[in-house]
Fold DUF2834 domain-containing protein.
Amino acid sequence: MSSRSSELTPVRLVWAGLTLFGAALALWRGEVLWRGAEGSDLVAHATLAFWCVIETMQRRNWIALLTLPALALGLGCALPLYLFIRSRRIA
């Protein structure tokens, strides 16, 4: 893997920071999926999961499947994580 494929650009640093912030906020407030999601939140979780799986299969970017367990911490963690992973160059 070349150094350019894992380069941390300013945008990728923002995605990483938002991922950590979203995870910390969810844990601090006790808002994990299994206790806090309902209604439109569940639709948003299902939409992101479906998008992640379909696009991962198309792009063969298997590491992006790490988004699925991150959904347990909510969209505030999973969405920026997915964008962080998706924004890297694929060899």
